[in-house]
Amino acid sequence: MSYQGGYYQDPNQAYYGNQYPQQPGYNPNYPPQPQGGYPAYPPQGGYPSQPPPPGFNPAYPPQPGYGQPQPGYPPQPGFAQPAPPMSSGYGTGYDPETGSVKGFEFNDQSIRRGFIRKVYSILTVQLLITLGFISLFLYHRPTQLWVKNHPEMFWIALGVMIVTLISMACCGDVRRKAPMNFIFLTLFTLAQAFLLAVTSANFNSQEVMLAVGITAAVCLGLTLFAFQTKWDFTVMGGILFVAVLVLMLFGLVAIFFPGKTITLVYASAGALIFSIYLVYDTQLMLGGSHKYSISPEEYIFAALNLYLDIVNIFLYILTIIGASRD
């Protein structure tokens, strides 16, 4: 240490004040001072601020009160995009093109398809039970003898069929609430199958099987026609109701004037009317572009309508075959 100019000078501090060498990146004019010698204050709200330095990101890390970057600032590295809005349903991913969440959401078409599958599943079970009863009564001799020795079973089955049919047709809770609706439908199907089997036992087995085959072909063709046609049969409910009333009156007249010709005319008219009814009930079940449709909650009622249409078509075709061979 040496004595110079009244101060002790350390050799290790040879540079003091302005004698210290300029460091790399040193800018004596930064930050710029305002005129008047006042120190520069940080930018306040509402006053213009200095442009941000390179790499500055006002929204990262996320602070309370910060939102999206201001217009004109490109997204900075590491900036977290906000999560897309979620929607109801089962989302599988965000679609940036449409701004929505991809997923499987329930709509009218999916509900209607499930309703149709349920109706035809129930109808298939009903037809299999009916076909089983008919086959048993046609080919099992002890069963035929037992039914002939107990005629009261026919009237019991007829009463059960009428009561369950009226209950399901007139009472909405009976055909909508499970398991009551399935119980009533099962009782009705068993009673109707028993009545059909007793009726079929009065005909030859070949005639019955021929009627079953023709009925299956007709119903399949009418169902495909109802699915494909652009004609709306749901507007024909009133016309079909009047046609059924006329058919009932014609049947009462045919009782007092029996004959082969009047029987063929009556059976042919009945088969035609209930064939149109099958198309009508099928389009009610399909819904879509048709004017009228049945609610998806009414799957028991829809299956019941289709089953009754098929049963009536079978009975009238069997009557035609029996009358033509008599």
From TrEMBL:
Superkingdom: Eukaryota
Chain coiled-coil ranges: none
Compartmental location: Membrane
Topology relative to the membrane: Multi-pass membrane protein
Cited PANTHER family: BAX INHIBITOR-RELATED, TRANSMEMBRANE BAX INHIBITOR MOTIF CONTAINING 7
GO cellular component entries: membrane
Protein name: Nmda receptor glutamate-binding chain
Family, similarity comment: Belongs to the BI1 family.
Chain spans, region Disordered: 1-87
TM helices/strands, residue ranges: 119-141, 153-170, 182-202, 208-227, 239-257, 263-280, 300-323
Listed Low complexity bias regions: 11-28, 35-48
Source organism per UniProt: Anopheles darlingi
Keywords: Membrane, Receptor, Transmembrane, Transmembrane helix
Keyword Cell wall biogenesis/degradation among UniProt keywords: no
InterPro entries: Bax_inhibitor_1-related (IPR006214)
